[in-house]
Amino acid sequence: MALLCAALCAQQAAAHEVKLETRQQPATVVSLSYADGEPFAFEAYELYLPGKETPEQVGRSNAAGQVIFLPGQHGEWRLKAFSADGHGVDQRLKLSLPSAGDAGPVGAASAAEPPRALLLLAGGGVLFGLFGIAQLFIRRKNK
C-alpha cells in the first residue's frame, strides 16, 4: 500500500519537474550602448534568423547592455533592440559558425540523474527494508 502511495505521489511530482543542463560553448555577444556610452541595459530585443519574419529569440539585454545567443546557422541575422522611450537599433549581423576545429562545447557539466523507475525501485526497497526491521523487533518483543 505504501509503495502504491509513493508511486502515485512520484507521478505528480514529475509533472512539475524542471531539469537543468549546463554546457559551455562559444556564443555571440552583441554589446549595445547609448550615444553617451551608458549600457543599453534591460531593454527588449528580438533576434531573427536569416530570411524569417518571426523572431527566433526575444528577451532583454543584460545589465551590461549585452545580447548573448548561439547562432545555429550562418548568414545575415537581424537584431532589433528597443526601449520604451523610443531609442533602439535595427541592425543586420553577418555571422558564421565556428570552424570544425572550434565546434562543440568547450566543457559540459550536467547533473547525472538516475532514471525515475530506479528511484521508485530504490524507495520501495527502503520501505520494505524498514518494514522488515520493524517486524524483526516486533517478533522479538512478542517472544
How would you sum up this structure, described in words?
The chain is α+β, with helices and mostly antiparallel strands and 143 residues long. Helix content is 29%, strand content 29%. The strands form 3 sheets. A 4-stranded antiparallel beta sheet has the order 4-3-6-7, with no helix packed on it. A two-stranded antiparallel sheet has the order 1-8. The two termini are 28 Å apart. The model is unreliable at 103-110 (pLDDT under 50).
Q: What descriptive keywords fit this protein?
A:
8 strands; 2 helices; alpha+beta; 29% helix; 143 residues; two-stranded antiparallel ribbon; four-stranded antiparallel sheet
**Helicity, as a percent range:** 25-40%
In order across it, which strands form the biggest sheet? 4-3-6-7
Low-pLDDT ranges? 103-110
Number of strand elements: 8
Give the N-to-C terminal Cα separation.
Answer: 28 Å
How many helices? The count is 2
Helix and strand sequence: HEEEEEEEEH
Shape: elongated
Content-based structural category: alpha+beta
Largest sheet: 4 strands, antiparallel
Mean pLDDT: 82
Strand content: 25-35%
> What is the CA-based Rg, rounded?
27 Å
Secondary-structure map:
Layout: H1 2-15, E1 21-24, E2 28-31, E3 44-48, E4 57-60, E5 66-69, E6 75-82, E7 88-95, E8 107-110, H2 116-142
Antiparallel strand pairs: 1-8, 2-5, 3-4, 3-6, 6-7
Helix pairs in contact: 1-2
Please sum up the structure shown.
The protein has two helices and eight strands; from the N terminus they run αββββββββα.
